[in-house]
Amino acid sequence: MGLKTVILAASALCALAGSATAGDYSKSLVPGYPDVAAEYLQIPGYAAPGTPKALNTASFLRLRAAVDGDAPRSANAVIVALPGFASTPAHWLYLASQLVHKAQARTCDGQPCRVEVWVLQRRGPNLADTTGLTAARKAKTPKLALDYYLGADALKPSAIAGAPAQVGPATAQAKWTPLSEQDLAFMADWDFQTYAGDVDAIIGLIGQKTGGHNIFLAGHSQGGGFVANYAARMKANGQRGIVGLSGLIFLDGGPSAGTQSEPTPAEIDGYFAHVDDLRAGKAAVYTDANGLLGAVAGPASAASQSVTGIYYAFSDPRAESIFPLRTSAMKQAPGDQFLKAIRLTWLARAGTSFDTDPVPGGGVQMPVLQFLGEGLGVLDFKPVPGTETQCDLTPPAPLPPGPARMMMGAPPKCVPSAAMVDPNKVYGWIEGGGNGGSAIDAGKAKAWMDSQAFAPARSNIKPVTVAFKTAGTLTLDAADMIGANWYPSERWDYDAGFVGKYKLLKLDRDGVKLDVDKTAIANIPVYVARQGFTQGVSGNPFPGVSDYTEINRTGTWQTDPAKAVVAFDPKINVAILHHTDFVSADDSTPDKGRPGDAGNSAVANTLIDWVLKRAKGAAVVPTPKALGVVTRY
User: What is the pTM for the complete model shown?
Assistant: First the structure.
């Protein structure tokens, strides 16, 4: 889909939506970055077979300089970013904002530079009914969202005297119910082709002037694998994805040229056997509570997380949270009774929910989040005097491979138990990050809380009416950007591993047409930041890439061609970064120390110059009016 086609489609959306509200950005400015405006956008996407036309859409979060208002200047660089496994644009909010912010402090052709970051939203949120979230935001009353998604009677009195009511499971009074696997059978074909086609459509919005070369493709975690696969993919126009890109950016995911030359016939047959199971309804098409993330995944959990985000948006961080950290649906794990018993502020709840080790050495975080989480600070907790040895006797869960803070290789000596908790106390949070007081934490719970609370007021997304197999005809309004993917595509996750495995992959069978050749990744700059220890040229999997920069736990390594463009201090490292810190690290004190220190984002403070030094010309970017953007609340 070319620029002209997409702009015409966007103009049609504009006609339906009416004229945009000019200059009303007050509710679309990123928390902590008043010079960065955000808009949540949707355009026609790849036509996945079987998917209702109204749902074949590509959505993305656009972040750009707020000073430009409704007339964005041509961009010196546009970074199109892909979130990781189970991630959403909310996870990219701070890195993207830092890059847009830092660009404005630099000079390009005699005026402040312009960098835009466009973060793809997975298709699952396009199926979310965010009506209740929008109503709650408009009224500034989060209880409206709770009633809509969980039921008015989901709020139960606490067993602790003086404590506020606590949110329990959804009840029959809830107005919302999730769509079924049968309703969403078409998701069996939300595959690599679909997401690559969506990215084609998004990139098609960007017009590069004559001689311009300024579109960068970035990915975090699983998104990094997509970057390599997309760059190597043959597009419908006969060109590889790498053509027209100025650089590839891999953040704790990839880069990879594949671990096997090409699939065997048996591997191909096995792939299509699983695809057939998805299409026939023998395998789940979206991730539910039985997947890798357990009870923290699936539409019911994601809806609850979205309601929590509304409460984050309108609650005093120092007030007591009404959402428990553990529910009955979760598998038993060390520290469960401790986390069920402890009373937390909203800020402490945010930190404890996603920090890799909120009680240092205590092992109270779920194993998968010990790997996927952030270093946000510590729970302000000490055992009630005399209970220090009353530890939780639940056997510790095995740790996954990954940098769980200070815990690798040995189980915790004493997992906190409910006996250690003072039932009359509300526990707070000691912030990490640059101005939060911890030298070993790259993030801050307040930033995480704000990212989950944030949804741009400006959007072009309109309600769509779709006939589903079991739910009947429903109108879905997915315009409120959410911090959780309600319906993650199992086909996409399966394809991500399969396509990424091979150097060469050519398929034309059963509706799958792929031509991926990773030897085509050449003559393009590559930037890598990752937790690993790979150093030197052995870290570069692309023989044809000479401009290569890598930042890892031990320092920064660059090829001579990379140094010639912009050289970085070899002592810059990501030693304190955890997995999600790569896209969410605090950058409140960039003037202190070197990139990689607490409060000084290793990625933001190197990637901005890496990008600008490799961008040529300017990119014509669409105006909000051309895309049909309106201010919704």
Answer: 0.93
